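Example with several molecule types.
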Amino acid sequence: MKDNLVLRVNNLSKEFTNNNETNEVIKDLSLSVEENTFTCILGPSGCGKTTLLRCIAGFEDYAGEIFVDDVLCKEPGIDRIMVFQDFNQLFPWKTVIGNIKFALKKNGVTDASEQEKIAKEMLEKTHLSGFEDYYPHQLSGGMKQRVAIAKALALKPRIILMDEPFAALDAMTRTELQNEVLKIFEENNITFIFITHNIQEAIMLGDRIIVLGLGGEVLIDEENHIQKPVTPASNGYGDLWKKLHDSLYLAKR
Amino acid sequence: MNSFMKKHKPLITKLIFIVVFLSIWEYVSIGNKLGPKTEIILPSLGAIGKAFVKNFVQGYAGQSLWIYIGNSMWILLVGLFIGILLAFVFSGLSIINETFRYIYDFMVSIFDLLPGIALLPVVIIIFGIRVEVIIFLVVHSVLWPMSRNILDGFSSIPRIFIEAGKNINLRGLDLVLSIYLPAAATHIISGLKSGWARAWRGLISAEMIFGIASSPGLGLYINQMRTNLNNAEMYATLLVIIIVGAFVQYGILQPIENHTIRKWGMVR
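Resulting structure tokens for the full complex:
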């Protein structure tokens, strides 16, 4: 075992009950994640990848144990910040900078000028300078996701959990945001866990790629050594793509 | 000119409607079109205008209409304040405690359907004929619709706001104040609108049924005008009731809406 593990998931099981029908979404899943790594989790719809992320975030009850830095986590907390797929995750009653400052204020940054400074710095990192005083409804989907990322960064979490954050964006904006996330990852000491159903996205971003099958069964778990920035012309891209693709479609069967 | 017309079309339409309405009124009134009783049924605009001024200058029983308006508004404000405060407190507690939520939801469903006026006899037995009775009725009128709206608002908040709130370590009261209340603002404001309207109507009705000598209000005034067959004064008082209602709607509620949910893009 490596000793720089930031996340350990032990024997996680999760079932949903609906009209007396019990559906076991995740069955006895165990995995661990090293510090400062970018893990992409791929899987077909219904494989439990979002549920896994929600369990880690503390939004769900489950059987099993989840440790962050060897501390048992049952409740949501700012050590694990979630970036949702839904663009409407920002509070519409607060401005862009207000959303970030509020999160800081509620977590020990009481000095207003300090809140302002951190928020501005994070907005600059996500290329949102000049949009501080906009309300969320005045922003495009891509910009809203940037604010959500800026807010996550401002809180200095141990892990940023991303649940298909770019799935609803157009292809150009998605590529742009992928590159920005990659840059943020390289410049900061933060662990990313990124859920996607897009194979290309997983290869572009992840330095570790996990494929989940039905019931949260780990089908593939391997490191991605393709040199970044990854393009379809990169060495090894085709082989990895095919391998992931095959296992995904096998899983779906 | 054309663009001016287009821009102000809603206002111009309303103005034309009012002018046409008043013209018909005056035509019927002056021409005695409703027979010999026309003057009593529809007093002329001039008579109503004079009565309007007289209401304020001379008033009734030695007191200007201002005093009556002031009394009514004071009762209304006190009642609204208590009612809205209780609605927030009880609805907030419903979020924090499940047992309380079941009970309160049940109570709201029952009392929301109970007209305040129907409670009047019971309340008079308890309190006697005092100003508190009317305050109680105003509180009753506003509390339940307001609570219903807040509770419905709370249950329709997107889960994502609550999870995002919990994610930044908000819990309990903090979560209610920082997330539930603003996220339910659309419902809260529509609760304010229907709550205030019910309170205003309830207040005037209660005052008409029994006026309190220690605190005579608008309802009492209009009822006295009716008993004394001062019909022009009665219409003039109706006008005052309409003006007060419009003032609250456009002078208070509309700005609140513009500065919150409209600014936040929560309504179009």
